[in-house]
Amino acid sequence: MIGRLPVIVRRMIQVIWDALSWLLAVMLLVGVRYDFSLTPDQWSWALAYSLCAIVLQVTFGLLSQVYLGRNRTGSFTEATWVGAMLILVATPLAIVFPLVSSDFPRGIGVVAPMLTLCFMALGRWAFRMIIAAGRKSTVGGAPALVYGAGDAGHEVARLIATAEEPPYRIVGFLDDAPGKGFLRVGGHRVRGTGEDLLAVAAETEAEVVILAISNASAKLIQSVSDRCRKAGLKLVVLPPVREMIGGRVTLASLREFNVADLLGRRPIKTDLSRIADSVQGRVVLITGAGGSIGAELARQVYKLGPSKLVLLDRDESALHGVQLSLYGSGLLDTDDMVLCDIRDQDALRAVFQEHRPELVFHAAALKHLPMLERFPVEGWKTNVLGTLNVLKCAHEAGGRQFVNISTDKAADATSVLGQTKRLAERLTAWFAQTHGTTYLSVRFGNVLGSRGSVLYAFRAQIERGDAVTVTHPDVTRYFMTIPEACELVLQASVIGRPGDVLVLDMGEPVKIVDVAQRLIEESGKDVKIRYTGLRHGEKLHEVLFSTLEKGRPSDHPLISQVAVPVFEPVDLPFRNEDAALRLLADQSRTDAAEAAAPAPQSSVSEAVV
Fold first, then answer.
1. Average pLDDT of 388-411?
2. How far apart are alpha carbons 570 and 544 in whole angstroms?
3. Looking at residue 74, what is its pLDDT?
4. Rounded to whole angstroms, how far apart are CA atoms 306 and 84?
5. What is the pLDDT of residues 107-134, one digit of tens each?
6. What angle do CA 121, 124, 126 make, to 5 degrees?
7. Would you tell me how many other CB atoms lie within 10 Å of the CB of residue 19?
8. How far apart are CA 571 and CA 587, in angstroms?
9. What pLDDT is stored for residue 591 in this prediction?
10. Whole-angstrom Cα distance, residue 419 to residue 586?
11. Which residue among 68, 159, 234, 448 is the one 20 to 30 A from 412 at the CA level?
C-alpha cells in the first residue's frame, strides 16, 4: 500500500513522477504535433529542453519544500504551489530556447508545460484515490448517518476519510435544504431530509446519527433526539463553536448527546471588539476566581489580553485548578494568584492597593439556598458584608468599573440567598450613584455544569441507583451554560449604565422533572423519581424581574436593564446579627416603599452616561 510506504520513499516517487511528466508531455506533443518526424538537431533540442525543465523543477521543488512535505499531497494548496513552480520553470525556458536555436520546436515551449501539469495532477489524483480506497477497504467504525451537509458536514466527512482508525463509517447524509437532494459529500449521497431519518437509517443499517450542525437549536436537537431514541440509534453531536478549539471541527470534538445540549444551545452573538477594548491593556481582578463562573470568566478575559489578570479566592485548590487551565502551570508562585477571603477587609484592601485593578468582576459568593437557610448569618457575612468590602476596596484603589454577579433569586426574594444578593445589588447601585462610577450588577439563573448543579446531583443519584429527588412535579428553573453566561456578563459589562442591574435572557424555564426523566433515559437504568417537597424559601417558579421592576431593552437583544433602589452602607447593622436578619426579611417591604417614591438613581445614572 502506497499509504504505508516510508515518507522519504513517497517523496522520491513524487519527484520521479514529476520528472517523467516532462518527458511524457514532450513525447506526446512530438508524436501528436510532429508525428515523431523531427530532425536529429530538433530531437537534441527537445531532449535538452526536457532535461533542463526536470533539473529546474527538482531544484525549485526542493528549495520551496514542495518535495519535502510542505503541503499534503494532492491538496489544493499543493496544486497551487506546483502550478506556480511550473510557471517559474516553463517561462524562462520558453523564452531562452527559441533565442538560442532556430531548430528548437517552438510548440514544445508553449504546449509541453500545460501537458506536464496535467500529468502531474493525474499522478496526484491517482495517489489520493489509492489512499482513499485503502482506507475504505479497512473494516471497522460504526455505520453512521450524518445530519447536515453544510461546512461542518463536509469537515466531518473529511476527518473520517483521513483518520487512521475512524470510529464511524459514513453510509449517507441527511439535510433539510431542498436544493441538496442530489448532493454528494465525500462520495456519500444526501439520501433525504430529517423527516426521512428513520427510513434511511433502516435502509442503510445505520447505528449512529452524527448531528453535524454546530449551531443547532434546542428544538432541532430535541426532535432528532426523540427520533433516534425511538429507533435505538446513538446520537452524536457537535458542540457549539465556542466550545471547539479555534472553532474547528475535530473527531475528538464529536460527543454523545446529553441533556445539556437541550438546555444551553442558543446562538449568542457578542461584540468582541467592544469587549476587548474594555479589557485589553487593563488590570482586571476576579473574586471567586476558583468557582465555576469565576474560572470561566478568567478564561474568557485572559483571551482578551489584559495587562494583568489577578485571580482571588479563599480556596487554594480552586486557584490551583484555574491556574493550570490558563497557563498550564500550577505552582501558585506568582503575585496574580491571591489567596484571600473577601470577609477580611484589611487583607482585601492590601490586595487592591497593590494591584489597583481598573475592572473588577465580583463572583465570590455563597450560593446554596438550603445551606444559607440554615446558616443565614454566613450568607450575610459573605454576600452582603463581603460584597461591601470588595466595593469599598475597588473604589479606594481607583477602580472605575465593577461588575457584581447576582442571581435571579434576588428578584422577589423569598430566601436568604435571594435577600443577600438583592442587598448586594442595592449596595452596588449606591456606589455607582454616589461616586459616579460604572458599578453595576448582572443577574441570571442556574448555570449548567457548575459545582452543585442539578445535573451533577441527578447523575450521581442515577449512578448509585438511588431515586432521583425532585422537589415538586411542577417546579421550573432557568438554565444557561457557563460559557454562555460569562459571554453575556462580559457583554453586559460594556453596555450597562452605572447602578443598573442587567438581566440576562435565560430563554424558557425548564421543568426539572423533564430534566430528571431525560437523564434517566440516557442512563438506561430503571431509576424512580421521588418528590421531596419545596424547601424553605424555595420558589416553585423563579422570575428574572420582581413585581416592582420593569426591564427596558439594552444594546443587546439578550440583555435587559432595570434600576434598583440604592442602599447606603451606613444603614447596615454591622455588629447586630439579629438586626441584619430582620433587614434581610424586610427586603420586599423596603423595595416596595422605595419604589413608591421617585427613584433617584435613574437620573443620576443617565447623567453619568
1. 96
2. 28
3. 64
4. 43
5. 888 899 999 999 988 988 888 777 666 6
6. 110
7. 17
8. 13
9. 58
10. 9
11. 448
**What whole-number percentage of the chain has pLDDT above 70?**
90
Q: Which three cell numbers stand for residue 121?
A: 495532477
- Compute CA distances 11 → 24, 124, 132, whole Å: 20, 12, 18
CB count in 10 Å sphere of residue 495:
17
C-beta atoms surrounding 107 within 10 Å: 13
Judge whether 190 and 167 are in contact, CB under 8 Å.
no
Of 197, 193, 196, nearest in space to 183 by CA: 193
Q: Which domains does the chain have, with CATH numbers?
A: 2-136 (no CATH), 142-257 (3.40.50.720), 272-445+481-505+544-608 (3.40.50.720)
- DSSP designation for 345: H
User: Quick one: cell of 540?
Assistant: 416553585
pLDDT band of residue 266 (cuts 50, 70, 90) is low
DSSP state at residue 535:
P
Q: Whole-prediction pTM value? A: 0.70
* Phi/psi at 187 (5° precision): 85, 0
For the ranges 70-74, 342-346, 529-533, the lowest mean pLDDT is seen at: 70-74
- The interaxial angle of helices 577-585 and 416-435, nearest 10 deg, is 90
Helix (H, G, I), strand (E, B) or coil at 604: helix
Element (DSSP H or E) covering residue 134 = helix 106-136
State the cell numbers at 374. Answer: 440554615
CB 166 within 8 A of CB 160: yes
* Whole-number pLDDT of residue 595: 47
d(CA 403, CA 443): 10
Residue 83, pLDDT > 50, answer: yes
Residue carrying C-alpha cell 449517507: 172
Q: Does pLDDT of 5 surpass 70?
A: no
Please give the C-alpha separations between residue 321 and each of 218, 283, 290, in angstroms, as whole numbers: 31, 21, 7
d(CA 351, CA 335): 10
As a whole number, mean pLDDT of residues 500-521 equals 88
Instruction: Kindly give the pairing relationship between strand 510-511 and strand 476-477.
Output: antiparallel
For residue 79, what are the contacts with CB-CB under 8 A and spacing of at least 6?
Answer: 121, 124
Mean pLDDT of the chain: 87
